[in-house]
Design a protein that fits this description.
It is a single chain. 47% of the residues lie in helices and 7% in strands. By secondary structure, the chain is α+β, with helices and mostly antiparallel strands. The chain has a 4-stranded antiparallel β-sheet with strand order 2-1-5-6. A hairpin with a 7-residue loop joins strand 5 and strand 6. Helix 1 runs parallel beside helix 13.
Length: 388
């Protein structure tokens, strides 16, 4: 998903769930910040590097793809953007190595979604925002895995957009920095790489930004499905994501006693069903302006443009004992907890792709011990190579 949904649509969902304008701004900022919080950013503010929730393209280019490097990549992308739908999924006639990657395929309504929402219960607004980002992405990124894998994430060139009247149009991909051309059906995707662990085979890179557009319904041939035709209905999935966020945040507010997977809030959202559906189905690269207009109509408050620099000064000026109580400090703590919960769940399922893990003690600002050791090990290796 993009800023239009993670920031503006999340604000709308938070308001409909009962949060105030100010609270909703904190939640939606945190949801969008998941796509900003790289090690490069954290280094600027001298925060805990293991709280990174995403990676820059330049960071990815420099990333190692040995066993430890792949574990690092998987910890970040599986924890925040491609939450595994079923860590114990079964598939006949495949190797154990393949099955481990197959079990990391993202999907909604899995046990890890439930645990993600529970983890945010009684935490900060930042923790709620992170949970909403993760939950929403399970719908947009379903069928792709947050680990580099040709045998899982690759696709055939067979892509067709399916329109509401049932007609179809061929989708074509190119490998440039040019913006997508929605009307011409021309999109940018990653370059095919035959190496199983190439960064080009991470997540939905082979499908470009199609999973991030709420309006598009398309069919394609995924590698994990044996290159058999699969239909991805984004308008339906995004609608469910929006309603599920409302339901989750009603639980997090304490208005209902249980968060239920496979349940979509039907009272608040139904009041605005036509408007929400119109925003989701409108064909364009970004729905930000429409979601913003809708959100501001709900509260009468102004939704400022997202500013990734907004909380840096507060964090830098805070004393060491005060940093954990700043906006970024609370975000870092919640990010550490989410990453550790997912990583430990993967490890507990006897899947080594995210590395060894110990359970994280919530609120411990130094972070996840095993991940910290891994980062230090990577630094040491890089230093040794530099001195060769």
């Amino acid at each position: 998903m993009q800023e239009d949904f993670h920031y503006y649509a999340t604000y709308c969902a938070a308001v409909l769930a009962g949060y105030t304008h100010e609270e909703s701004l904190e939640i939606c900022y945190s949801a969008q910040f998941v796509d900003i919080c790289t090690r490069t950013f954290i280094s600027r503010v001298k925060g805990p590097l293991n709280a990174a929730t995403t990676q820059l393209q330049l960071e990815m280019v420099d990333a190692d793809t040995d066993a430890v490097g792949l574990q690092d990549i998987t910890r970040i992308w599986a924890s925040f953007h491609f939450l595994p739908g079923d860590l114990y999924a079964e598939k006949k006639h495949c190797s154990k190595r393949y099955l481990r990657k197959y079990r990391l395929i993202c999907g909604p309504n899995g046990e890890l979604v439930r645990e993600t929402v529970r983890l945010a219960k009684d935490s900060s607004m930042q923790g709620i925002g992170i949970a909403m980002h993760v939950l929403a992405d399970t719908w947009a990124h379903r069928y792709f895995a947050g680990t580099p894998s040709l045998v899982i994430n690759n696709t055939d060139s067979y892509f067709y957009e399916i329109f509401p009247d049932g007609s179809e149009k061929k989708i074509n991909f190119r490998h440039t920095t040019s913006p997508d051309d929605v009307e011409k059906g021309l999109y940018t995707s990653s370059i095919f790489q035959g190496s199983e662990n190439s960064i080009m085979n991470l997540g939905h890179g082979r499908a470009g930004h199609l999973p991030d557009y709420s309006f598009i319904k398309y069919k394609y041939l995924p590698a994990w499905g044996g290159y058999e035709e699969t239909v991805k209905d984004n308008p339906s999935d995004y609608n469910k994501a929006f309603r599920q966020m409302i339901h989750a945040m009603q639980y997090l507010r304490g208005d209902i006693g249980e968060f239920r997977t496979d349940y979509y809030e039907g009272t608040k959202a139904e009041l605005y069903r036509e408007r929400i559906d119109e925003i989701i189905r409108k064909r364009r690269e970004s729905a930000a302006e429409d979601w913003k207009e809708f959100g501001e109509s709900l509260t009468g408050g102004k939704i400022p443009d997202f500013d990734q620099e907004a909380y840096i000064e507060e964090y830098l000026r805070a004393g060491e004992d005060e940093k954990k109580d700043t906006f970024l400090g609370r975000f870092f703590i919640s990010a550490l907890a989410q990453k550790s919960m997912v990583t430990h769940s993967i490890f507990a399922s006897k899947n080594p792709l995210a590395g060894y893990s110990v359970e994280y003690k919530k609120g411990n600002i130094p972070g996840i011990r095993d991940f910290k050791m891994m980062v230090e090990s990577m630094k040491k290796r890089k230093g040794e190579r530099a001195n060769e």
